[in-house]
Structure formats: structure tokens, C-alpha cells
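Researcher: For the annotation table, I need C-alpha cells for Phospholipid phosphatase. Please keep the output clean. Sequence:
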Amino acid sequence: MNKTIQTKRDTIIPATIFLILYAIWAILVASENQFIHNFDQTMINIICNNNPIIIKFATTFTNLGNTNVITIETIILVIVLALSKRFACAVFTAGTMIGANGYNWIIKHAIARQRPLTEHLVAAHGYSFPSGHSVGSATLFGILIVLTILLIKNKAAKTVLCLVWACFPILIGYTRIFSHVHYPSDVIGGFLEGIAFLLIGYSFLYHYYLESQRAQSNLY
């Protein structure tokens, strides 16, 4: 019993923490808190410049976080998992992505924050907070980290893959700020939301599949 309680804490508590952090961050943004304004301005001054090489990289790499690209990548991943008979992982992937991106659409229209008024380096439509690119990439590549940890046996390969997956959302978030289509606080909000939904999805995967699978294996 104590072990069960501990494992639940290991998954549910981090999810709750990130949900609370996200809620606080969203409230600060929605209320136009001075801290958010100062944070955005400081980060923009650090990140943005006129280097043509970085401009080319940012305007190209940012496409990896487009909704259509993320959707296609998710569908391919779900199909691969289903064909491999990893049905619980496929449901985890699809459910987590639908939940995160669906909620993102709702909160975008609830807060209705306008995008930065400076000239955008790439096309961008809709409201600014949270960054959809950041939510989608943090959730999808977070899912890939979870799947890598669960399914890859080789420790070296597991470590390398996890580091690679972690770099993608960070770079995509960076390109959104650099391209002037999002405030830094939009990107942070997107990361917090994506991670929160990832942890919620993993909690369901753990408790409704992994734990029962482990219990069955102990019977033999």
C-alpha cells in the first residue's frame, strides 16, 4: 500500500505543481502584471538581434512547431505505436496532444492577448498567449521523452535521444520570440501548459496501464 501511495505521489504531485505554476503565470499575463512586462522586455533585449544567419535559422526552424506539422508528426507517431501494438502508448500520445492543444485554444480566446506590435519575421495569426508552437512542441517532444524512457533499453541511446527531444521545444520557443510573433511570457506559458498536460497524461498511463501490467507480471 505504501509503495502504491508513493508512486501516485511521484506522478500526480509534479502534474499538480505544473498546473499551479501555469495558472499563476496565466493570471499574471491576463492581469498585465508589471513583472511580466519587465520579464518580456529583458528577454527580448537578450534574444533578438539582426544577425542574418540567426534570422534564417529562426524563420526556418520555427516551422517545425507549426500546428499542421505537429499534427502530422503526432498522427504518424500514433500509427507507429498502434502498429507496434503499443496501444496504451498510442492512446496516451493522442489523448495528451488533444487535451493540451484543445485547452490551449480555449485559454487563448479567454485571455485574448494581442501579439507583439513589432514587425513579424514569419506569418502568425490569432492571439498570443500561450504560444501554440510552444505548447505543441513541449507536449509532443515530452511524449517522445517518456516513450524513449519506457521503450528504449540501451542507456546510451536513451540518454542521447532524450537530450535531442528536449532541444526541439527550447529551440522552437526561441524562434517564436526571435521572430517577434510571441512574447517570452507566451513561450514560458506554453511550456508550463505542455508539461502539465504531459504529466497528467503520464499519470493516467502509469496508473491505468503500467501499474496493472507490472502487477500481472508479478503473478507469474
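Researcher: And a one-line annotation?
Model: The CA atoms of residues 28 and 34 lie 9 Å apart.
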